[in-house]
Known about the structure:
- Pfam families: DUF2177.
- With 143 residues, the chain is an all-alpha fold.
- It contains four helices and no strands.
Amino acid sequence: MRKNVKTYIVAYLATLIVFVAIDFVWLGSMADRLYRPTLGEMLAPEFRLAPAVAFYLIYAAGLTFLAVRTGLMSGSVVTAALYGAAVGFTAYATYDLTNQSTLKNWSTTLTMADLLWGSALSAVSAGAAFWITQRVVGTLDKT
Length: 143
């Protein structure tokens, strides 16, 4: 049982670090190319740290529980990545399609780009976290 706690902690931290690192690269390179031209004045003039931190902490927990854990239980990086893609697609679809249905400036192009990004980012993050966790802790005890 003790090993499982360590496994989940390593899995969560790996998921969080990989997800945040890759997403920062995406946001840094795409904010002015994709988001600002579409959303314009709707974007906050300054980055708001607290909501961003809350999102990353919560999303990494969900991704760890729903995708990385499933991969660790099955012993398959492919399972972790596929479940990660499903979590990402579902979460990003919820956000983007709600925005597209309620915000006049939200475009289909932005929705499609975000859905692809969220799915790919979540798949890569879950797969990488699986791989890191297995290397650091080993397999998950199923007892």
